[in-house]
Write a structure and sequence with these properties.
Layout lengths: L2 E6 L2 E11 L2 E6 L6 H12 L3 E6 L16 H14 L5 E6 L1 H13 L3 E7 L7 H16 L1 H12 L10 H14 L2 H11 L15 E6 L7 H10 L4 E5 L5 H4 L1 H12 L20
Parallel strand pairs: 3-4, 3-5, 5-6, 6-7, 7-8
Antiparallel strand pairs: 1-2, 2-4
Helix pairs in contact: 1-10, 2-3, 4-5, 4-7, 5-6
């Protein structure tokens, strides 16, 4: 895969990125402990016949390297834009999942009219007490036993109807797959960033048409976080889906259709959704 050198606040970084397809550019930003193909495999297959798809491996994933300093959203956004630049994308659509949604939103806020459209799934503007406690727990489990973390993620990120809950053997296979995906040092750095995300000041600077997708059953990043993102991004459309945090894994066809239709300019209506009680969030 291609690599590009860029400068972060803590020093140089060499960013590995996926580059496939041809046509109008789409940049995909993966979530914590994941990879571009792991998060977006079906979406990539759907997009590449008509789009140039670029998907960086953020620090902590793949062979991307940096100084080893604590990660920041701004630095990860620089990696995203460096990959887009190196692939020759002057303008592009931008899609992010979970932490990748936070990073994609920051990149869009810094890019002006370079971003043609923005799709944010399961992101958040500010890490509140609940998110901070959750990701700190994940980090401790990762240090102790990656299999334990995999079990917790499978139990909380997926809906109860997920295929791997149909029988014990299927669940154990998924546990093994998720445990193998986590990279202890790299994933721990991403989790530490998850604990302290604060991009609320950047969201009003987004100028691209934006779709914010909230899973009504998301127990990892509950939908009140996406509702707040949609309130802060000017003109954003908010769509609730009957899904958990792992929507791109559980319902890849549905997720890909939402993204592809929004990129093509077919804008869904806002949906009010079953709003959950908000905790006290920093302004």
């Amino acid at each position: 895969m291609p690599r590009v050198r860029t400068e972060l606040s803590s020093g140089p970084s060499v960013v590995e990125y996926l580059h496939t397809g041809s046509g109008e550019g789409v940049v995909l930003v993966h979530g914590t402990g994941a990879t571009p193909d792991g998060n977006f495999g079906h979406l990539i297959d759907v997009l590449r016949p008509r789009h140039t798809v670029v998907a960086p491996f953020l620090s902590g994933a793949g062979t991307t390297t940096d100084s080893g300093a604590p990660l920041t959203v701004d630095d990860l956004a620089r990696q995203v834009l460096a990959a887009a630049d190196d692939a020759g994308l002057t303008k592009f659509h931008l899609v992010g999942h979970s932490l990748g949604a936070c990073v994609a939103a920051a990149a869009a806020a810094q890019s002006g009219d370079r971003v043609r459209s923005l799709v944010l799934h399961a992101g958040w503007a500010t890490s509140d007490t609940r998110l901070t406690a959750q990701f700190a727990l994940w980090r401790r489990l990762l240090a102790a036993d990656t299999e334990l973390l995999a079990r917790l993620v499978l139990l909380t990120a997926f809906r109860a109807t997920a295929p791997h809950f149909q029988d014990a053997a299927a669940f154990e296979r998924e546990v093994a797959a998720f445990a193998a995906m986590f990279r202890p040092e790299g994933t721990a750095r991403q989790l530490l960033l998850d604990e302290e995300v604060d991009i609320a000041r950047l969201l009003p600077r987004v100028t691209a048409p934006a779709l914010v997708i909230a899973g009504t059953d998301d127990a990892v990043v509950p939908p009140y976080h996406q509702e707040r993102m949609a309130e802060l991004v000017p003109g954003a459309r908010l769509t609730h889906v009957a899904a958990g945090h792992a929507f791109p894994f559980e319902s890849p066809e549905w997720f890909a259709r939402l993204v592809a239709e929004f990129i093509a300019g077919r804008r869904p209506e806002r949906t009010p959704g079953p709003r959950q009680p908000d905790p006290a969030l920093p302004s």
